[in-house]
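Hey, quick one: can you model this chain's 3D structure?
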Amino acid sequence: MNQTIKKLIDALPNNPGCYQMYNKDNEVIYVGKAKNLYKRVSQYFLRPQSGKVQAMVSNVDHFDFIITSNESEAFILEYNLIHKYLPKYNILLKDDKHYPYIGLKKRGIIEVKLKRNIKDKNYSYFGPYPKSTFAYDIIDLINKLFPLKKCNVLPKKPCLYYHINQCLGYCIKKIDDSVNDELYSKVYKFLKGNTKEIEDNLMDKIKENNEKLNFEESKYYKELLDAINHIKTLQTVDFNSNENKDFFAYTSFNNYVCIALFVYRNGMLLGKDEIISEIFENELETVSDLITQYYAKNELPKEIIVFSKDLKNSLQDYLNCKIISPTKGKNFDVLNKLIENSKKGLEKYFNKEKSTRDVESILINLQNLLNIKYPKYIELFDNSHISGYDAVSVSVAYINGIACKRLYRKFKLNNENTKSDLDNMKEVLTRKYKRMINDGIELPNLILIDGGLNQIVVAKNVLNNLNIKNIDIFGLYKNDKHQTEGIISLDGNKIPLDKKSDLYLFLSSMQDEVHRFAITFFRQTHLKNYKKSILDDVEGLGKVKKNLIYETYPDLNSLKQASLLELEQFLNKKVALNLYNKIHKDD
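Sure thing. Here's the predicted structure for all 587 residues.
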């Protein structure tokens, strides 16, 4: 222990607060919280350590601390500091999850929407839903059951939803407040789990249509009834209707922990999720940190139920709600179900990963191979276009080897020569890093370019023009079969990689991710342009028929392959001919 550390330990107070560990380059490598700063921080240096904690301590040059009023304040400060500094050794929820809610407009034009926050007081909120797909399914079902507003912008004339009685026609008439209030009340009851009135109504319609031999209508109402029963099955009611609870249970294996979560609101299970992470200090500390970090982004329920009494005591200092650890009863039964979920979660994780590669050792290997600083923050770029048209670019970010989606960025390119990948690279790097400098945002340590020497030279010139000196740039070069072969430096030196090595697999997964992100963004942009231009001004072609064309022909090429006779199957002959002539006018 050096003299600087000894003096800093002597100055530590016995107060709650946060501490920040720094390396010799004055970078924050770890942030922690403590009920007693002296006891917590001193033990790093006064006790023998092992594993990743030992690795972290060996890199500590000095530390600092911030005193807080209580443990809860320390928890909030810790979360904010982790997001500010992105420390190398911190446990952090990988995708920074903020679960969605279903928002129901309280007054005026009644509508339901997926909401990521609950700050708008004009809505009542239901959730959170750990799986957004489940929330979308419920919204879709509600829109079929109730005549709510469906359009984001009110059209000038009624759409298809009005004609099939799935909208009251807000675009063409003023709906009385009493009608809106009644509609709100019905949807509110449905979202609270009171579905009996709707189910009885659907049963009556099924019987009525069966008696009239309207079997198509009867089938439609039966499908709605089945959808309600399916959702109710997924939301098995185990508790009283007024209970909001979150359940946590975990298992560990091979220095990894999987925390399984059940979210119950009003007695209904809204879904489950799993949080998987490496264990840093010890199992209890890791689980406690992950759960408290989870509640920095998600609303606290009235009650949290956990399996371990030690975990309960640890969480009680930081979370301001009731926390219990039952030994019998319904809550205990739910925890037992969660244990099985957490075991399955770890099994799936290891089957998916196929190996438990140590990301930190891979990054250290990359650091040594390229003779650079530890690559805590890596960014990759990729471009996508069709012969220079609809050109887009994207960047993806990896913090401590983990994809950080909140730092992903998309760019629509507008330089004079979007057919040139070099010009595209120059534009996107200039725009991105100029903005980051102006906004005072931390820059990456390493940029990996998916291309050859020319791409790297362009990237280096951009950084020089912006007076950026501390970012390393390398390329990932390919062989004649367009397969990644290795790494190329600015001086043209090629470093081949073993295709069976963890480093190669790690870099390949990064390339796959940036390519996936670029292609997805390109398709979205290309589809928007297709929708904006090709079908506009086709005489007689309305919005409903346009949507039908988009669903049937997802791009221009597939639409061009349609014969006039094929188009006449769902368009009248005049409109079909107008459309056919427009899409083939350049042929």
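One thing worth noting: The radius of gyration is 29 Å.
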